[in-house]
């Protein structure tokens, strides 16, 4: 029984790492930070896998990309750490953990609770993303950027699409979590 559960967890963690990679290639290019489906799969990883395994799926995704596999929106490799958008990838790890942790504490998931849980995770993606965007432009890219400009381009231009994804993920969560609970997967 334990081997079956471990195997299932291994498969799900790998699947969500792969889905996040696929989400990187489904993108709408906007200046500085492209809109992708990565957040959707990161959020669902936290919802379905929980805090530790959800975060692990995102850690694997980031590690595979840093190892040189071109799974990020603009390729891969260790030098990706110097891309202004790398902070969002760090945020995915934290967001999956936060979303999973909140979901683990919720007894009965409603749409409102799911939205709150997902928005908490999204907050951390933008927190890490905007700060990293600002720091990267000002410290090592040598292109001065105001905090307002980083906030506008890294948050304001992107948030509407992510709010739509949040609502969609919340809808999926309220449908799928009871099924996973019924079968003892979460």
UniProtKB/TrEMBL annotation:
Entry keyword Transmembrane: yes
Q: Is the keyword Transmembrane helix in the record? A: yes
Topology relative to the membrane: Multi-pass membrane protein
Keywords carried by this UniProt record: Cell membrane, Membrane, Transmembrane, Transmembrane helix, Transport
The entry's localization annotation reads: Cell membrane
Q: Which InterPro entries match?
A: BioY
Q: Name one GO cellular component term.
A: plasma membrane
Family the UniProt entry places it in: Belongs to the BioY family.
Which PANTHER family does the annotation name? BIOTIN TRANSPORTER BIOY (PTHR34295)
Q: What is this protein called?
A: Biotin transporter
Q: Which organism is it from?
A: Clostridium sulfidigenes
């Amino acid at each position: 029984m334990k081997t079956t559960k471990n195997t299932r967890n291994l498969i799900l963690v790998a699947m969500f790492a792969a889905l996040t990679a696929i989400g990187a290639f489904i993108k709408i290019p906007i200046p500085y930070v492209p809109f992708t489906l990565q957040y959707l799969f990161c959020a669902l990883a936290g919802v379905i896998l929980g805090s530790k395994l959800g975060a692990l799926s995102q850690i694997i995704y980031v590690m595979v990309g840093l190892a040189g596999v071109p799974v990020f929106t603009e390729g891969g490799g260790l030098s990706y750490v110097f891309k202004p958008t790398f902070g969002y990838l760090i945020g995915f790890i934290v967001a999956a953990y936060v979303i999973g942790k909140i979901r683990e504490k919720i007894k009965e998931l409603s749409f409102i609770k799911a939205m709150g849980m997902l928005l908490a995770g999204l907050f951390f993606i933008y927190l890490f993303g905007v700060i990293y965007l600002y720091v990267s432009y000002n410290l090592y890219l040598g292109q001065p950027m105001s905090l307002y400009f980083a906030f506008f381009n890294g948050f304001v231009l992107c948030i509407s699409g992510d709010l739509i994804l949040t609502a969609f993920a919340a809808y999926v969560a309220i449908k799928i979590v009871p099924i996973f609970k019924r079968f003892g997967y979460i």
